[in-house]
Amino acid sequence: MPPEIAEMIGQNLALVVLALVILLAVSRAVRIVPQSEKYVVERFGRLHAVLGPGINFIVPFLDQVAHRISVLERQLPTSRQDAITADNVLVQVETSVFYRIIEPEKTVYRIRDVDAAITTTVAGIVRSEIGTMELDQVQSNRAPLIERIRESLANMVDDWGIEVTRAEILDVNLDEATRAAMLQQLNAERARRAQVTEAEGRCRAVELAADGDLYAAEQQAKAKRLLADAEAYATAAIATAIRDGGIEAAQYQVAMRQVEVLTEVGKGQGKQTVIIPASALEALGDAFRMFRGAK
Predict the structure, then answer these.
(1) Does the predicted model carry a pTM greater than 0.70?
(2) pLDDT digits (tens, 9 = 90+) for 14-57
(3) The domain 73-174 belongs to what CATH superfamily?
(4) What is the spatial distance between Cα 180 and Cα 178, in angstroms, rounded to a whole number?
């Protein structure tokens, strides 16, 4: 190397080193945090600050970014845990939990494996809540159960700087023996409902038949009452005629009645010959004479 170049480098070496140190300090002092993350900064091994999204400045060589925490919502793997209901039925519950970290300093320094801790906590809460419910309630009222699980989980993980955004019960599985027993119970319930429906149908038919008989009896009673009224009217009319016309009116009514009876007798089937008593002929003659006399 020529002496001139070596002398120039020796004179500017301090400046070059100073420039490199300044450049390194600036690069370590400026931290650009993505929108989906937060940085936990330590100073001499202790928590110093939490950097949010954007440009942040720290003290170079004293402060260092110890943890880069994603604040995006996370989903735990689907977990299965056994639980016993209040009516002593063993069920296997599939759950899924969504959460996100809102306070990274708590998550970093208070819990080692947050996913495992949440999974264990969910299992305990699910067993506790299902233990207070019967099987029918677990299968038909999942929404209140899910809400209670979410609230209990949120209270327990608050010290870890975590927000539980959603907790779901994906399925409630039963063993084969319980499934068979439930199917038998369901079939028995269907048969009972069919028998009840059939019995109600027969009862309704009897009620309708009784209503029909009652209506027919009422109509017959009305008809008899009308006939009785008509007969009473006719009797009254005859009585008036007898009172006004004397014995002749009575004889006329008797004769007409005999004529009507003979007419009915003559209408009988298979009757070729009708024997008329002499008194009937005399009654017919008397009725004819009375009729002519009335004219």
Answers:
(1) no
(2) 777 778 888 888 888 889 999 999 999 999 889 999 999 999 99
(3) Band 7 domain (3.30.479.30)
(4) 5
